[in-house]
């Protein structure tokens, strides 16, 4: 598999690093308008090739680095600043998306596009609209969604309960952002209901929603965990795993219309294959609808 990554900033390089360590690809390319930055990151990664499964790492400032890629990961865009919401990035990054998508499919006609750029729900929708005009199925344009948010929630639960993260089963759905919700009604630890009251659940959701703000305030950006969570999605695509992950894909809501947001979805070689019909409580349905409205409002504004 060839993975091409657009954007050689801290997120793009973390995705390349995680993908190389996990042996996800035969070839990884990094593209960035800043050729010196891309070249430096490529060289840094190449210097560790002795310690990872065989992979060819290349790229530079020529978009042809993405040619014939099986998956193109898009991380390019304006960076979220301390105190800034993801939705405030929508206008600039939607414009970048409209410019990039045709150029990428021109070079990699059969690729799956995986957006990591924020606000991921908005740019994924914009990317799908552009792709549809080129005859590309919307399922081949997806976003990283709440895969990372879900991992953050599971970490918070595991810490609170002194249980391994791998034994915690809980999902964040909706917007990757301030209106996201936790699907508490199906959450469990080893098949048992969570031994927590509503106040504790609300605290955990608050911690999860605000995790990125805390990291950005302290170090300027989130990059390591998003690198790992994106690599998890890439693994599902590359092996046609048909894994259920809360990626960002297209859904329709009564009174709202079509939006992109995250729900448990089967992921394989073609991108988003189908959404899983997860049972929702009345509160979860209301929260998901509110999240869909927030995303739709941002889409309409760009």
CATH architecture of the largest domain: Alpha-Beta Complex
Run of helices and strands: EHEHEEHEHEHEEEEEHHEEEEEH
Strand content: 15-25%
Question: Would you identify the CATH H-level superfamily of the largest domain?
Answer: Lactate dehydrogenase/glycoside hydrolase, family 4, C-terminal
Describe the structure.
With 302 residues, the protein is an alpha/beta fold. It has two domains: 2-143, NAD(P)-binding Rossmann-like Domain (Rossmann fold); 147-301, Alpha-Beta Complex (L-2-Hydroxyisocaproate Dehydrogenase, Chain A, domain 2), CATH 3.90.110. Helix content is 43%, strand content 20%. It has eight helices and 16 strands. The model has no long low-confidence stretch (mean pLDDT 96).
Summarize the structure.
The protein has 302 residues and is of the alpha/beta class. It is built from eight helices and 16 strands.
């Amino acid at each position: 598999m060839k993975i091409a990554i657009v954007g050689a900033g801290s997120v793009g390089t973390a995705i390349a690093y995680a993908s190389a360590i996990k042996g996800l690809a035969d070839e990884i390319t990094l593209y960035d308008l800043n050729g010196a930055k891309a070249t430096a990151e490529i060289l840094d990664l190449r210097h560790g090739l002795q310690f990872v499964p065989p992979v060819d790492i290349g790229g530079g400032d020529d978009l042809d680095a993405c040619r014939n890629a099986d998956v193109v990961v898009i991380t390019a865009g304006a960076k979220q600043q301390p105190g800034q919401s993801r939705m405030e990035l929508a206008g600039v990054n939607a414009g970048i998306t409209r410019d990039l998508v045709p150029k990428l499919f021109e070079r990699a006609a059969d690729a799956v596009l995986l957006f990591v750029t924020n606000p991921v729900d908005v740019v994924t929708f914009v990317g799908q609209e552009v792709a549809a005009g080129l005859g590309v199925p919307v399922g081949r344009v997806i976003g990283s969604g709440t895969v990372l948010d879900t991992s953050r929630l599971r970490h918070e639960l595991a810490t609170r309960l002194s249980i391994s993260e791998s034994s915690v089963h809980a999902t964040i759905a909706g917007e990757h952002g301030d209106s996201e919700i936790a699907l508490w009604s199906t959450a469990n630890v080893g098949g048992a209901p969570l031994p927590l009251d509503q106040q504790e659940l609300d605290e955990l959701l608050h911690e999860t929603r605000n995790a990125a703000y805390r990291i950005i305030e302290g170090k300027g950006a989130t990059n390591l965990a998003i690198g790992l969570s994106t690599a998890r999605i890439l693994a599902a695509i590359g092996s046609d795993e048909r894994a259920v992950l809360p990626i960002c894909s297209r859904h329709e809501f009564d009174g709202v219309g079509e939006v992109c947001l995250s729900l448990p979805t089967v992921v394989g070689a073609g991108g988003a294959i189908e959404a899983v019909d997860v049972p929702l409580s009345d509160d979860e349905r209301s929260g998901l609808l509110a999240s869909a409205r927030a995303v739709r409002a941002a889409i309409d504004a760009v």
